[in-house]
Each structure stands twice: as structure tokens, then as C-alpha cells.
């Protein structure tokens, strides 16, 4: 177990090191001079960008270390990142790590609530679809999944706001100050991923139930429901776990639209504001943070695979 975990950790660190190179080069590959691009973000609306002088550009290049060789710039930047220094926001002049730290809890809270919504919808509907394949229950489940997967999150969010906040007045429309404020954005974010997960679980269950040993057990009189819950559900959850790991990472980085619609104070909304304001250091820090989260989540899933799928343990022993 320890050797397997160490191999997966080494692979994750290798991927993360490659990502740091890509993230570092983002600012350096901006069309034109990076120092000029950074200065343009500091020009107040209505002012002429021609006021930027060559001396200003030279000062910024010196502050950013752009006059040093590229490998030295990368080593300096990586050293700061390893100490938790992601740089300073061009707009707020505040440390990026501090700003992300104040917004991550809100995004984690929203992502956790959306995952709960996903499992509450996807697991029962996927099981019903696999248990009653080809029947009316399965058809209704598949149609609802298709509708949920096809509906854009911003449209569903606006629809929920209009129905439950404006017309009925049951829930707040936006913000994150009240506990019930999380309900509408969590449903909006969870419905779309629940639809895809439900269809994946149904297909995985049907594939598992069609295996020869499952058909033999059913032919000998074992009920299909007993087969499903006792023997088929565990191996059928393996592809769902893979999907859930990608979904969990995507929720943290891809909730920007939902956070913007509901004015939720998370990192997704923070990223949208940084992109619109051309705050390149924030974009760098956010990209690196999301990459780290994806690597960590995939590492955890790899470890869980070892417990869910016996073939992983067999393969591990065969490689020793």
C-alpha cells in the first residue's frame, strides 16, 4: 500500500512541476511586453495610455525581474510559490494568497453542497435506471437526466431566482450571508453534474449486470435487486468515482458562472473579475491553485481505487 501511494504521489508531483512551468509562462507569453501589459491594467478608465513612459516600463520590468534570464525568473518565482507567496493583485494591491484564502471557504462550501445535491439525485436515479432498464421508470429518469444535462447553468440559476426568490419569496436571490443562501446556487450547480453522473451510473450498472457471473446468478433465481445492491453496485461505482473526482475539481474552478449569477463570494467569481480586469498575477495564482487541487483529488481517488477494485491490488503485486 505504501509503495503504491508513493508511486502515485511521485507521479502527481511530476505533473504539478510541469504545470508550474506552464503557469509561469502564461504572463511571459502575453502578446507584446508583459511590463506594458501590466501597466495598462493600472491606467484608470478615461486616461490616455500614452501617459505610460519608458521609465515606467523599465521600473516595472525591474520589479518583476523580467531582465533576468528566463530560468532564473522561473527559479525565483517557484521559490516564492513554495513559501506561499503567489504575488500581489494589480487591482487591489493585496497579497493573492490572502485574497484566495478568504474566498476558498465559500467555494468549498458551495462545492460540497452541490456534490450533496448531485449524489442525492444521481445515485437513486442511476440505480432505478439500472434496476428497471427499459421500463417507464427508466425512460422518465433518462429524459430528466437529458434535460438537466442540456440546460445551461446560468439559465437554470435565473429560473430558480425568478421562481423561488422573486415570485414565491422563499429563498434569497443572491449573496452568502444567510445560511439558506446556498440552496439555490447548490441546486443550480448540482443538477447539471447529477444528470451526467446518473447516466454514467446507469450504464455502468447495466454493463456489470450483463457479466456472465451475474447472468448465471440471476438464472439460478437470485433477485435482480439483490444482485444489484450486493454484488453489482460496488464495481459499478468505479467509473462514477472517476467522474466524481473530475467533477469535484471542476466544481472548485468551474463554478464561476453560478457564483457570478448568485453573487456568491467564491474564487470563481474572483477569477472572472481578474480576467475582466486583466489581473495577470491573480490568473497565475488561481490556475496554480486549481492544478494543485486536481492533483490532490486524483491522488485520493487513486488510493480509493485500490480498495474498490481488486484488480488494482493484483496489478500492484504483479509489478513488485
Describe this structure in words.
It is a single chain. The protein is mostly helical and 320 residues long. It folds into 2 domains: 2-96, no CATH class; 99-319, MetI-like fold, CATH 1.10.3720. The protein has 14 helices and no strands. The protein has helices at 2-28, 34-42, 54-64, 70-82, 96-131, 136-150, 153-167, 183-209, 212-219, 224-254, 256-261, 267-276, 280-308, 310-319. α1 (2-28) runs antiparallel to α13 and α6 (136-150) packs across α8. The longest helix is centred in the middle third of the chain and has 36 residues, at 96-131. The N and C termini lie close together (11 Å). The mean pLDDT is 76.
Amino acid at each position: 500500500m505504501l509503495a503504491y501511494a508513493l508511486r502515485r504521489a511521485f507521479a502527481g508531483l511530476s505533473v504539478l512541476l510541469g504545470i508550474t512551468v506552464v503557469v509561469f509562462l502564461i504572463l511571459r507569453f502575453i502578446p507584446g511586453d508583459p511590463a506594458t501589459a501590466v501597466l495598462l491594467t493600472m491606467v484608470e478608465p478615461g486616461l490616455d495610455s500614452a501617459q505610460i513612459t519608458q521609465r515606467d516600463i523599465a521600473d516595472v520590468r525591474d520589479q518583476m525581474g523580467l531582465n533576468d534570464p528566463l530560468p532564473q525568473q522561473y527559479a525565483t518565482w517557484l521559490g516564492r510559490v513554495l513559501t506561499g507567496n503567489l504575488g500581489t493583485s494589480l487591482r487591489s494591491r493585496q497579497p493573492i494568497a490572502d485574497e484566495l484564502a478568504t474566498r476558498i471557504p465559500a467555494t468549498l462550501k458551495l462545492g460540497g453542497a452541490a456534490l450533496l445535491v448531485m449524489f442525492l439525485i444521481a445515485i437513486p436515479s442511476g440505480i432505478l435506471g439500472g434496476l428497471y432498464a427499459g421500463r417507464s421508470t427508466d425512460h422518465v429518469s433518462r429524459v430528466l437526466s437529458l434535460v438537466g444535462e442540456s440546460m445551461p447553468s446560468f439559465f437554470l440559476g435565473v429560473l430558480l431566482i425568478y421562481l423561488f426568490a422573486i415570485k414565491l419569496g422563499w429563498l434569497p436571490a443572491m449573496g452568502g450571508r444567510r445560511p439558506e443562501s446556498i440552496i439555490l446556487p447548490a441546486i443550480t450547480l448540482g443538477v447539471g453534474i447529477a444528470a451526467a453522473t446518473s447516466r454514467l451510473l446507469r450504464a455502468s450498472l447495466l454493463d456489470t449486470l450483463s457479466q456472465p457471473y451475474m447472468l448465471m446468478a440471476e438464472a439460478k433465481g437470485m433477485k435482480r435487486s439483490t444482485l444489484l445492491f450486493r454484488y453489482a453496485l460496488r464495481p459499478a461505482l468505479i467509473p462514477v468515482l472517476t467522474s466524481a473526482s473530475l467533477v469535484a475539481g471542476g466544481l472548485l474552478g468551474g463554478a464561476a458562472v453560478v457564483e457570478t449569477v448568485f453573487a456568491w463570494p467564491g474564487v470563481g467569481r474572483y477569477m472572472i473579475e481578474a480576467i475582466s480586469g486583466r489581473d495577470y498575477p491573480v490568473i497565475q495564482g488561481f490556475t496554480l491553485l486549481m492544478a494543485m487541487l486536481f492533483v490532490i483529488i486524483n491522488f485520493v481517488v487513486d488510493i480509493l481505487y485500490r480498495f474498490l477494485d481488486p484488480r488494482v491490488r493484483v496489478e500492484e503485486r504483479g509489478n513488485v
